[in-house]
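Before surveying the methods themselves, it helps to consider a single example record, giving the amino acid sequence and backbone structure tokens:
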Amino acid sequence: MTPHWLPAAWARLRRPSGAGIGNARWRVFAASCALLGLVAHLALLPWFLWRGIGELVVYNLVTLPVYLFAGWVFVLRPGLPRRWHLVGTVGVALELVGQGTLATWLLGWGSGFHYFLLLVPLVVLFSPFGKPLQRALLSFAVGVAYLWLWDVSSRHVPVYVLGADELRGYLAANFALVFVVVMAIGFLFERAATRMEGELEHERSRSERLLLNTLPAAIAQRLKDDPGQPIAERHAEVSVLFCDIVGFTQLAERLPAEQLVDILNRVFTGFDDIVDRHGVEKIKTIGDAYMVAAGLPDPRDDHADALADVALAMVAVVQSLRNGLGNALDVRIGIHSGPVVAGVIGRRKFAYDLWGDVVNTAARMESHGVPGSIQVTQATATLLGQAWRLEPRGDLEIKGKGPMPVFLLQGRAG
């Protein structure tokens, strides 16, 4: 079932829109005037009959169709063309002016003052002008018009002179009607504003979570504080890890797409948990490759040890999944340590990334590694020291680097 337009329009009241017949703000304004005018007509008609004010009885009966038509246009059939909205608007406006003028002429200024109380807040709250200054000026114009009417009526003797008690009761009833109407509008408006603020806070929190899933917290804060400035930093001591799923291409050829994505999701979700647990930084995934760094954006002395623990945990996760899935699932992992440049690039789908020889060498350690093993360079092995069991693999020919001594990480010593 399609929701009615009026509650949605109430929720959008705090979003300024351009002036124009038919927009959400105007429709709420016109619908409010139509419904309230209809209620006022029905409430005052018995009193006019009892008091014998024939002119207002006839006027109320004649103009009642105006409000019925306006209610049909603005409440029941808001999708009608704009010309119908214009006709309904003009009809309600002329009726309000006519009612106020006639009541003031027949009963005196005091009896018509409630129109001022009603129209000024309605104009301020719901007029179709998007800018507050425009709404305030329009409301001021309404007030000036009523002051002029008061000046004219003060020199006029009412046709029907009401007694003091009768006028007091009439004004009290009018005031009660206006007070209830304005309070109802204020309540609905506040409810809509509160709901919108809650939605905005929810969206802000959601955007914050998405940003923190993309960038490190410190980098995300810098980007929010100064979005126009590029972010680039040099880090002298960092360790970088690459992990790749062995035989993933062959696996993709023989498994259904849904099962393949499910396996990859399980693996990377396990890796994400490991990264969070050890306080290191996930940089990105490239296909079936997973890149992690330690020692940035905040420096830490144990960056090599942290990634060694992460690598061992990754191997254990894959081993556990392989036993459960019954697939020939394995990984190669490579680690290298040294200086890098880190920063955020791009304007759309921006990402925190690393550049430098350390990144390339860590990728080479992975691609030239042994399935199920963790291969590290001499630089990383030196940082790990005697606390870890490292098996020398000899010199490995690395593209662009020549022969390099490499080691296979076995675990912690002892």
The chain has two domains: 5-207, 223-412. Strands lie at 231-246, 281-286, 289-294, 330-345, 351-355, 374-377, 388-398, 402-412.
